[in-house]
Amino acid sequence: MIFLDNAATSFPKPESVYKFMDAFFRRSGVNPGRSGYDMCMEAGELLDNTRKLLCSFFNGRDPNRLCFGYNSTDALNLIVFGLLGRGDHAVTTNLEHNSVLRPLYHQEKYGGVEVDRVPFDRSGFVDPGDIARRFKKNTRLVVVNHGSNVIGTVQPVREIGRLCRERGVLLAVDASQTAGKLPIDVRADNIDVLAFTGHKSLLGPTGIGGLYVGQGVSIRHTRAGGTGVRSAEHLHLEEYPYRLEYGTPNIMGVAGLSAGVKWIQDKGMDSIEAQEMGLTAELRDGLREIEGVVLYCQDDLKNHLSVLTFNILGMEAGDTGTMLDVDHNIACRTGLHCAPLVHEQLGTDKIKGSVRFGIGPFNTREDIRAAVAAVADVAETARKRRASSRAGS
């Protein structure tokens, strides 16, 4: 199979990830930080070292403020419900994934929070000034998708963060698509809280992710439970990372995440990005030449991820995806991609979304050529259907 669904989850993982997860879990797959025997201590050491590794990876100051969770959705729920309360105002964008949209909808309906949503321009970018113009006296939080999982555009978070700092507004960034693909510097980029997931471009397994909380940001508790330390306390602990970590951590996921980040560092993020964007340009250029293919926000690949979204005239996205899978053995993603406002603004919601190709570090030029040929074949089938339909009418 040619796997072009890397925006959903990267596959395959580096061989070093598989090997380290297997070896670590066989040797020390126990509950970290709960006891003093050797295996427990080794598990705790892995947890602490991965915390430090990721803190450095994002240029954070304090590794204890790197908190593990299940994924970006988990982290964003902690952020949205832990920072916003009745009477607050938040600003977000039409580019967001449901991991941002739905918590904010819940806060609007049940939490007394007011939310503004900023559209993107024809090229797929949000103007930082449009966000700043939505600020009110009670604006508490801006939540921005760093890189769109639908159209692949990378937003100017540093400028957005600068404007937020000027007004004393917190900036939370959803780095689901960009962590591991692009350098992220939480200090230089003026990011107060960063949400990340491990199973995409950080090349770890599913079920692991988290958030980095900047200095001076206090996210209130919305959960409580075991921490493995100070068990006599009635209330959940206030200090980070325990403040936002609950129960037994996914130590197997942490192991894979650690190995994924180390593979990226060894390979070089710039090298990975250059390879992926070279393939993206080749794919974009090939699809452009196919009659009946409609591309969205792909005119310029500057400030862009290796994600391409398209449709074929006369074909529903789901049917295109099925033909690519069954007839050509190509895995892709179709539909609304859990980001309905993007499709509403593009108008693709009316045709059940679009087809998405996501390129990863293990894709090749042969994969891209095969994908272009496959789309050309499906587009030819669609043209014949349209011609037959016109003739019949």
How would you characterize this protein structure?
The structure is a single chain. With 393 residues, the protein is α/β, with parallel strands linked by helices. It folds into two domains: 2-9 and 268-392, Aspartate Aminotransferase, domain 1 (Alpha-Beta Complex); 15-266, 3-Layer(aba) Sandwich (Aspartate Aminotransferase, domain 2), CATH 3.40.640.10. The protein is 40% helix and 15% strand. The strands form three sheets. A seven-stranded mixed beta sheet has the order 2-8-7-6-5-3-4, with helices on both faces. α1 packs antiparallel against α7 and α2 packs across α7. It is globular and about 80 Å long. The two termini are 39 Å apart. The mean pLDDT is 95.
